[in-house]
Amino acid sequence: MKLRCTILASLFAGLLATSAVAARKPTAAERKTITGTVTGFYSYWWYYKPGIEIPGLHVSNIRISTVDRHFAAVDVKGPKTTGRLVLVDRALLWHSLSRWVVVDAPGSEFIGCGVAPPAVNRDLFRGLGGC
Q1: How far, in Å, CA of 79 to CA of 31, rounded?
Q2: What is the Cα–Cα distance from 120 to 131, expressed in whole angstroms?
Q3: What's the CA gap between 128 and 6, in Å, rounded?
Q4: Contacts of 83-88 spanning 24+ positions with Cβ under 8 A
Q5: Stated pTM of the model
Q6: In angstroms, rounded to a whole number, what is the distance separating the alpha carbons of residues 71 and 93?
Q7: What is the pLDDT of residues 48-60, one digit of tens each?
Q8: Which stretch of DSSP H or E encloses residue 90?
Q9: Which of 26, 73, 102, 112 fits a disulfide with 116 by CB distance 3.0 to 4.6 angstroms?
Q10: pLDDT in tens, 3-53
């Protein structure tokens, strides 16, 4: 009986731990705003001109942290026609008082390290942050 209670308690604790770290999908408004922010950031990063549309830039897998709702992450895939390598990247965003801002992105092997709390990195990148 004692073993059965121990097993049940362990399973229950495991369920609580996994549900506490699970990023959520954005609402339609959040998705639109975050996608616009990321495409604007990359248009400036690639061309140094805000507002230029990059054909073939695809923002996907948008997720918002359940640990701290001010942080979000996206996966970005760039076009093959820019003359550069195909971009496959992740970006970390932070929600200020009124808008989303890209705070960590291209070329960052340890995305989010020193920018977001470790619990947020685990939530958004599922251990891929590497801090």
Answers
A1: 20
A2: 11
A3: 32
A4: 84/46, 87/42
A5: 0.73
A6: 6
A7: 666 667 777 889 9
A8: strand 88-95
A9: 112
A10: 444 443 444 444 334 445 589 999 999 999 999 998 888 877 766 666 667
